[in-house]
Amino acid sequence: MGKAVIIGGGAAGMYAASAAADNGCEVHLFERNEKLGKKLFITGKGRCNLTNNCDRETLLRNQCRNEKFLYSAFDGCSSRDVMDFFEEEGLRLKTERGGRVFPKSDHSSDVIRTLEQALRRRGVSVHLNSRVKHILTEAQGERTWVSGVELENGKRISADYVVVATGGCSYPSTGSDGDGYRFAETLGLKVTRRYPALVPLKTAEAWPGELMGLSLRNVSVCVRQQGKVLFEEQGEMLFTHYGVSGPLILSASCYVTDRLLQGAVTLTIDLKPALTAEMLDARLLRDFDAGKNRHFRNILGGLLPAKMIPVMIRLSGIDPDKPVNLITRQERARLGTLMKALPLTITGTGGFSEAIITKGGVDVRQILPGTMESRKIGGLYFAGEVLDLDAFTGGFNLQIAWATGYAAGKSLY
Questions:
Q1: Among 311, 356, 363, 394, which residue has the fewest nearby CB atoms (within 10 Å)?
Q2: Where are the alpha helices (DSSP H) in 167-297?
Q3: To the nearest whole number, what is the mean pLDDT of the chain?
Q4: In angstroms, what CA-CA distances link 324 with 164, 305, 318, 320, 331?
């Protein structure tokens, strides 16, 4: 029976520990915090969107990068497999809009409690308040192999396998400070540049601050750089004190962070994606005709949220007190263009403290996709956010954690 050390008591680490224990391995899980699953506790606004109830092709389509690397991991651990695991452990689940899977209780603490119970039932030794400082290796023939870990207190633990599941840099208050990247680099593995991902965007324009807290549904956003479309999708967004956020924007951010280093990035909002420009113009004509004796500032209530009207009037350049019947065709066209492509200039993103995940990490070209083992160092495995893998919102990032954790854990025996 082999001995495995799992570094990190988050989603990937706990799932890897369970899978390794099921294989008959002696498993020791080391967590630097005082409890397991601190980041899991805050995911999904405290509800924990633990996976997405969809097929493999949909899982792969929702990856932002390196989706081919995940083929075998998702084959070995599908979203249905994850749901079955939790339900067999006694957690009742529900599927909501867009295939998002949550605990029926809407409490992320129940997900963590279920995982803790699974670890206890499998005899996994959990060591809290135990930070790993170094991964130990030794040469065996022509290859280097792991031999254990050294804790912050200087204690050395021997092991046949070490799984690094330390998370990324997002939400550093949960203990994710990049330890896993340091381990990898110290051992000679390449780590790609890290960026905050699934994160709000900052804009050069100040007017979004006037709309702070306003949520828009069923709008479309398009992100471009030098005319090239980087992202285009329809959904929900909101305005913040320094820019934009919400589900659409978080997804768009995956295509923005590294691009900002290459030049200006623009974002346009289509406030009426269900209408063509011609249909919108006809709608404006009808509204203007019905209120021809009213002022411009009083005519937009049927098309825009009240909070947005003063901003749109100002951006249109049309006098708010101008009688509607005096508005020119050019002015009406300008308003229509603004509603179909409201422009913003992206200047940056929120930091890691606001980011849901980390973009970048251990280069997956150095990892065997079927087992998550390092190609360079025998017995060394990586799982979860520490890898250069990221996906859109909707449970897809946690599915990466479960699937890569399972791939690593099932390889240990």
A1: 363
A2: 179-186, 247-253, 277-290
A3: 96
A4: 65, 19, 10, 10, 11
